[in-house]
Amino acid sequence: MRRFLATLPLFLLLCPLQAQDAGDIVANIYRQLGMFPQEKVYLMTDKAAYVAGEYIWFRAFLTDAL
Fold first, then answer.
1. How far apart (Å, rounded) are the C-alpha atoms in residues 32 and 38?
2. Which pLDDT score, from 0 to 100, does residue 19 have?
3. Contact between 57 and 44 (Cβ < 8 Å)
4. What pLDDT, in 10s, does the model give residues 1-29?
5. First-to-last CA distance in the chain?
6. Which residue, among 13, 47, 17, 7, has the nearest Cα to 56 in the 3D structure?
7. What's the predicted TM-score (pTM) here?
8. Are the CB atoms for 65 and 40 separated by under 8 Å?
9. Which of 65, 48, 41, 45 is nearest to 57 (CA)?
């Protein structure tokens, strides 16, 4: 176990590490949404609870994920 812990920092120093730019992340998100478009449905009602026999008034929205 001690040998492993001693060689771990050396291994991490030898491995090249790269970070993603914020532009790359945004481009990947847009590319993902272009390949697999997503839609979201929102449903709004006029009351939080209803009694049997009441009319339910609602409004529905379909939006694009972008």
1. 10
2. 66
3. no
4. 777 777 877 777 776 666 667 778 888 88
5. 49
6. 47
7. 0.42
8. yes
9. 45
